[in-house]
Batch of 2 targets.
Target 1
Amino acid sequence: MVMPIQESGRARRQALRSGKHRGTDAVESFSRGFQALGELAMDGVQVSARATDLATGRVLFSVDDHVVMPTASIGKVLLLIEVAAKLRDANFGSYMILDRTTSDSVGSSGIWQHLQAPSLPVADLAALVGATSDNLATNVLIRAVGLNAVRERTEELGLTRTALLDLVRDHRGPDDAPQLSVGSAKELTWLFTALARGEVVDANTSERVLGWLSLNTDLSMVSSAFGLNPLSHRESDHGMLLVNKTGTDSGVRSEVGVLRGPRAGVAYAVSTYYADTRLSSRLAVLDGMRAVGYDLLEYVH
């Protein structure tokens, strides 16, 4: 099982101080984000981040991007990839109706739990996952395609540090996976770059996944710096287009995405793991992630 790699506080702080820049322009463009992430690391936050130029693949910055971090709902992207790939099968169509059951029930994110409809088509459930990270829809889709199939697809993609580990649960016991998903910033930026290029399974599969993710309403982390309408950003806004997925859990804030602008496009991933004992700690993490977002915005716009 893929598990988070623990590193000493000293190692994390050193990584943030030195950083891995690529080129003078990158140093200038991302100094604000590096400083913000460095301050978080000094306060004991585990940080992993990476950004690459979408056209050239050039690494713009990286901080412990090989480290496996808890990523909460970001692992649902792997589920959406498997669902989109399954839609190529005539026996698993987008209009196939799936029922929710008592065993699927879970709270927290999503709106299906608040709706009266007991059944929805596969494509609608995928759209709910993309738009609101719907936990109930996630569990129903996992039951339909199988967690093992998601794992096999993940391995076929060559991902070894990124995985969807379990169903969504209200409470995790000692026999459950400790996290819903884990991932490394390096693999996540590769995955979203491949999606943007139509290279995940095939072009149609990649396009379906991007379409579902483009509905995402959570722009509270890195993407809070982009000034986009969280409820409607599928069309170009000041020359910018965003597709992203976030993950939120106790002590976890993580985001991966692709941002295109008038000057350039980037794939990025930022994950943080911290002691969520004070509101000020959480707000500091969100401020640090937003600082990286400002740097990304300056690079693409």
Note: The two ends are 40 Å apart (CA to CA).
Target 2
Amino acid sequence: MPWPADIGGALLAPERPAPPGVSRPERFAVYRNNVVVSLVEALAAAYPATKALVGERFFNAMAGVHVRAEPPTSPVLIHYGAGFPAFIEGFEPAARLPFLPDVARLERLWLLAYHGPEAAPIPLDVLARLPETALAEARLRLHPTAGLLASRHPMVSLWAANTGRGAHEAVDLGRAETALVLRPHDRVEVHVLDRGLAAFVQALQGGQPLSAAADSALAVDPTFPLATTLGRLFVSGAVVGIDLATREES
């Protein structure tokens, strides 16, 4: 449960005195500092690439401002920090790094996928066994941890380079990237999608049948390869079920 307003407010506002009833103000001050430090550390653990991009000193200062502006509302720390990317976007000292909010959003998706529900992917031959007349209206159910994020910046490359998963030399700051994040097996995977595949996945997430999803992809990429794309999605473990027009489940 969240802290009582008087206690919570005093804990996160160093300029305020200890609330009435606190017999040892000096010990309350120590506790207040420990609370802020613990929440900043929780943000650092959840946003390692964001921290690496700005450095520890800048990150701790920025996170400290966020902690005081948006205290926890749940005792479960995994829920804390959901608003951090939006906070970064409005944090004026970080404005010189326009890609930073999207890197943080990607890290949030990664964390949600890591703690998300399990679901067993299905093999591609399940799709191959469907009659051709059913394919057009079939709807693919994506893994429940699947999250799609588009950015005008190379957020995936920056995230990878700053978490030991990629090289700094591979980052092209003029490149836009769209990411598909999911955990089909025992680890979180981050895939960079081209425009056609991103439109296709977005349409599938919206519940559109295969034919409509393919049309969405072809609208942005006339060379969109449907068969190759389906194979890629199934091999990556992104598909966990197929709903037919009769709502039967495969």
Note: The first strand starts at residue 139 and ends at 142.
